[in-house]
Amino acid sequence: MNRPHPVLIDCDPGIDDAIALLMAFAMPDALELTGITTVAGNGPLAVTARNARRIRDFAGRHEVPVFAGCPRPLVAAPVFGERIHGADGLGGVGLSGTSGGLAAGHGVDAILEQAATRSDLTVIAVGPLTNLAVALVKRPDLAGRIARTVIMGGGIAQGNVTPAAEFNVFFDPEAARAVLDSGLRPTLVPLDATQRAPLSASRIEELAACGEGVAPEAGAMLRVYHGNVGRDRPGVFIHDAMAVAVPVWPDLFEIRPARLSVCTDAGPERGRTIADFASAEPNADVVVDLDPAAFLDRLCGELRAFRR
Fold first, then answer.
1. Which residues are catalytic?
2. Which of 129, 104, 90, 119 minimizes the C-alpha distance to 35?
3. What is the CATH classification number for the domain harbouring 209?
4. Structurally, how many domains does the chain consist of?
5. Domain extent for 152
6. What is the pLDDT of residues 252-304, one digit of tens each?
7. Of the candidates 80, 68, 71, 132, the residue with the CA atom closest to the CA atom of residue 106
């Protein structure tokens, strides 16, 4: 990239969202973070909006506006992720700095306004897709205004909240379906990709022991995350940071076109993401392979080097 690329991140922090935000803040030469919109998902909207501000202010980037968006899924009752991320959404890890205020206006309107004024805007959505779906319903021409959309969500082979469904899609499958049917043609980063790159306990401890910058707190959050998902696992999957990596480090990823759909029926298949890679009418591009070691090396390197 010759100049920083304007990026809006739509998120529901959440520990892996926090790591994704810190990664984005750590690369000002590659990414110009123009705003953060928050949505209910890993926690209620009040929690995710507060956590986005906590991460922003901890990173020393007070100028980046944070907008609160949709407080619940389009149709279903919310099922939050406190078991994985802790009651406060960030594993109970204290972050230095005060939490500044929210920007005026709704997150949905922030997406619309930024897309209207920035022809090269990339939207990286790493939470449930409620905000983006409502924005597309409100302004269907939005699909032609966003230069690129990268979504962390879905699992082609299997889910992580049910055998069929990944959390972000399961939380609001109607929203995910609306986004895929909108003509937006996003790049999808599914579990099939993110689960190929577990961050080991030893690398987490290396971050926590850095002693300066954002790495110690990042390591502390990831330590809690690892404990909550199971210390018998080889590591933790930093799902959301991979979505930030796709536009910055395209050399690491293999992407294929596919026709995606989402099951919105009640029952065990609800939230399943279905991919047809042989379709003559693709509506998305899917990350199907990557260099896991290089991704983790670069991610940890950015976190270790980031000084507020």
1. 239
2. 104
3. 3.90.245.10
4. 1
5. 5-305
6. 999 999 999 999 999 999 999 999 999 999 999 999 999 999 999 999 999 99
7. 68
